[in-house]
Write a structure and sequence with these properties.
33 strands; Beta-Lactamase; 814 residues; 5 domains; 6-stranded antiparallel sheet; elongated; alpha+beta
């Protein structure tokens, strides 16, 4: 026998592949196990009575070996075992005393050397794992109670091991406990649920990151990465779970901080609304970073004005709040509260750096009964506090207040650095939104100042126009509408969209609107007006700076419609603009007008095709621009008009009310782009308000024209206008017969003003001039201009028409 002695600190348990031989004090074999007989290759009966030295190729010194067995341990040596029908086998021999026997006896445990070496390696690995503290190892039974655990993790709330007694060690031992008793309740329940899956399914868990705050120190953040493996017996039954875990608190904290900064970089600034950026900031910080938070901004920031010097008493408005519990503490200032800061807070906000109070106990005592500061700083459940000023370009925009409750680690310097990083991004995003707010308010104010009054009620139509700005400055300034009163009680409806947004687009819209009104004063047909407008747009665009695209008249769209209440006809033409909807007054239909939209303005040379309609009294035209003019929006409007058909037939609502009802569903989700809506309910002139006569080109019939006009005015009760009207009719009819030939058409219209029209086949326009003292004529139009409130002329398909307007008693001159 040869080898080295081994004396471990505890008796190892023999595996099933170990063989045992019982010998007496003199080394005589008294018996053996079946495994031993099989290993030696000799029957157990034959081995009985043999000398132990005969079992090995090199007989041991039994006396020396026996004397080396310590009182409570064993001796282990290497030897070569002789086998009857095989080569000698290198084995490990363990000699153990049997204390319970009446006579001294010993057990020889035989194990093949390769098996013993592997077992040593396994034991060494287990000892190394359970004695180290870098990786936690825990064994749980099927009830998830701890049966074995290495020293990891150290409880930060427990006293050092050198200061604890044995009784305290036993009391503090986690063995036999479940995780719910060792960890914070919710953390323990979460991990146990995952381990229960391992027990029930036998499926392992790999690299699962969980919070594992110790029950003795719940305020200390602790995160572990664990792996759980099922422990199976030889029959495959799960007997427990082996768990390895490592503390990844710092890594996880770093990852969360990086993720929070990344979320702030991507989330803040996506909206151009000041409040929305403040709400986004709260969504980022609560509950990930804090349990409670509020954002207070200066009034100048909210309205888009330039921030001023932050002084004592500067008002702040609470624009965003967040609570991890979903509510908001009643003891704090609520949302939309106006807060005025005092000396201490003002100085703090001007410094520009975040401040923390790790423990609010001292602050509570210092504030005492100061209700204002208590409502500002001290929620009932708060344990630590952080105040974060919001700055941009050296100016104070507002402040962020953050609180953590007692069940969470108080704010520290790392939190300050993280908060200041996010706060700088938030300040920049809010300041950008403030600038856009200012520009949007300016653009919207300019846009609204250029649009006509929302509602207009004239003889030919009742109209209502509504302008809806987009959600951002980029959605304001492009859409417009107008209602223009023309001669002879006619009315024009105009709707258009200018390319671009913002101030430039509003200015371009103003230029286009002015051009349309100027051309409309000449009373051309809709297609002729658009032709002239197209030429004018080309000239304006040519003078525009090269490369300018935001707010150009080139590419603008426009639809121009004229309704004549005397004839009951409506003509319209379009330059690239979608046609309007026509809703019948009887509720029978609400269809899109069949109108060919020509090219957008500024294309040049393309003709515009007019269309003429004869709407019934009370019919509705609905013109749309901007985001209301696309296909889906038009379908929405048409559907609304169809649903309201019955109401229109039995009791029509005003155009203003109808327009607001149409927009109600459209504005459920505010559009990114602006929109304009013009609703016009057309109606004819009263039957007895128009009188018409036709005369041949015979100056002797001028007297008949005067007489018939005077008689008609008497029937209308306008005797006070008879004299001036006779002079006007005499002058205009005489000139038409003398210079244009016949037939000559005379028409009187009694409206809000008295209108006199004389039409002839000539297209030569009259000119007002000042006659010299020696001239015998040339004073006719000058006289007409002096007797009337307004006068003018327009081309017609068969010639021209000269018209005048006179004020009726009770009216004031505009």
């Amino acid at each position: 026998m040869s080898g080295s002695d081994r004396t471990p600190g505890a008796v190892p348990e023999g595996p099933e592949d170990a063989a045992v031989v019982v010998v007496d004090h003199s080394g005589t074999v008294l018996g053996c196990t079946a495994d031993a007989a099989a290993l030696i290759g000799t029957a157990a009966e034959e081995l009985k009575g043999a000398d132990v030295g005969e079992l090995f190729t090199d007989a041991p010194d039994w006396q020396e070996l026996r004397e080396r067995v310590p009182e409570t341990s064993f001796v282990s040596v290497q030897a070569d075992l002789q086998r009857r029908s095989a080569q000698p086998l290198a084995v490990r021999l363990d000699l153990l005393p049997v204390r319970a026997a009446a006579e001294p006896r010993f057990l020889l445990r035989l194990m093949p050397a390769n098996v013993a070496d592997r077992r040593d390696e396994d034991e060494a690995l287990l000892r190394a794992m359970f004695n180290q503290s870098g990786v936690g190892i825990a064994i749980h039974d099927t009830d998830l109670r701890l049966t074995r655990v290495n020293p990891f993790p150290a409880d930060p709330g427990a006293p050092p091991a050198a200061e604890r007694s044995a009784a305290e060690d036993r009391e503090a031992s986690p063995l036999g406990s479940r995780l719910g008793a060792l960890l914070v309740i919710e953390d323990g329940a979460h991990i146990e649920a995952r381990l229960r899956q391992v027990v029930e399914t036998g499926e392992p868990l790999i690299d699962v990151v969980c919070r594992a705050r110790l029950a003795r120190s719940p305020e200390r953040e602790r995160t572990v990465s664990l792996a759980a493996l099922p422990l199976r017996g030889r029959d495959g039954t799960v007997h427990g779970v082996a768990v390895t875990f490592t503390d990844v608190t710092e890594q996880e904290s770093s990852r969360r901080r990086s993720a929070l900064v990344a979320a702030a970089a991507s989330g803040l600034g996506r909206s151009l609304d000041v409040r929305r950026n403040a709400e986004t900031l709260m969504d980022l910080l609560v509950p990930e970073f804090a349990d409670l938070g509020a954002v207070d901004l200066t009034e100048t920031t909210l309205v888009g004005e330039e921030p001023t010097d932050f002084a004592v008493g500067t008002p702040l408005l609470r624009v965003a709040v967040a609570d991890r519990e979903g509510g908001w503490p009643s003891e704090l200032y609520p949302l939309d509260s106006m807060i005025r800061v005092q000396d201490t807070e003002s100085e703090l906000l001007r410094t520009g750096s975040a401040r923390i109070a790790r423990d609010l106990t001292e602050l509570r005592g210092r504030i005492g009964d100061d209700e204002r500061r208590s409502r500002l700083l001290l929620p009932a459940d708060a344990a630590s506090f952080m105040v974060l000023p919001l700055h941009a370009r050296g100016r104070v925009l507002g402040v962020v207040a953050l609180w953590r409750t007692a069940g969470r680690a108080p704010f520290d310097e790392q939190d300050v650095a993280l908060a200041e990083d996010i706060g700088s991004r938030a300040g920049l995003a809010i300041d950008n939104a403030r600038r856009y707010t200012r520009e949007r308010r300016t653009a919207e104010a300019l846009q609204r100042s250029l649009l006509p009054q929302p509602a207009l009620d004239v003889t030919g139509a009742e109209t209502a126009g509504i302008y809806v700005p987009g959600r951002t400055v980029a959605g304001t300034g492009g859409s417009w509408f107008d209602v223009i009163t023309l001669s002879s009680t006619r009315v024009a409806f105009v709707v258009g969209t200018v390319v671009g947004h913002g101030l430039d687009a509003a200015a371009a819209m103003g230029r286009l609107q002015t051009a349309v009104r100027t051309l409309a004063d000449l009373d051309p047909a809709p297609d002729e007006l658009l032709t002239h407008l197209d030429d004018l747009v080309m000239q304006l665009a040519d003078r525009q700076q090269p490369g300018a695209t935001n707010g150009t008249v080139r590419g603008a769209t426009c639809i121009y419609a004229v309704h004549d209440p005397v004839t009951g006809r409506c003509s319209m033409a379009s330059a690239g603009h979608p046609p309007p909807l026509l809703a019948r007054a009887d509720g029978s239909a609400a269809d899109i007008v069949e109108l060919t939209a020509g090219a957008a303005l500024g294309s040049g040379g393309a003709p515009f095709e007019p269309v003429e309609l004869e709407p019934a009294p009370g019919d509705l035209f609905v013109f749309a621009a901007g985001s209301l003019a696309d296909g889906s929006a038009q379908e929405l409007v048409a559907g609304h008009l169809a649903r309201e058909a019955g109401a229109r037939a039995h009791g029509p609502e005003s155009a203003q009310e109808l327009g607001q009802r149409i927009l109600a569903s459209f504005l459920a989700q505010p559009p990114d782009d602006d929109a304009a809506l013009l609703v016009a309910r057309v109606r004819p002139s009263p039957e007895d308000s128009v009188a018409t006569w036709e005369y041949p080109a015979d100056v002797e019939r001028v007297a008949d024209a005067r007489a018939e006009a005077a008689a008609q005015l008497t029937r209308w009760g306008l005797d006070e206008l008879v004299f001036t009207t006779e002079l006007i009719v005499s002058e205009l009819v005489t000139n038409a017969m003398r210079y244009a030939g016949g037939p000559v058409l005379l028409r009187l219209i009694r409206d809000q003003r008295l209108i006199c029209e004389v039409s002839d086949p000539s297209q030569t326009q009259p000119h007002l001039r000042r006659a010299r003292l020696t001239d015998e004529g040339g004073r006719g139009l000058y006289l007409v201009a002096q007797l009337t409130h307004r006068w003018g002329s327009r081309y017609t398909a068969s010639g021209k028409t000269i018209w005048t307007e006179q004020l009726i008693d009770g009216q004031e001159s505009e």
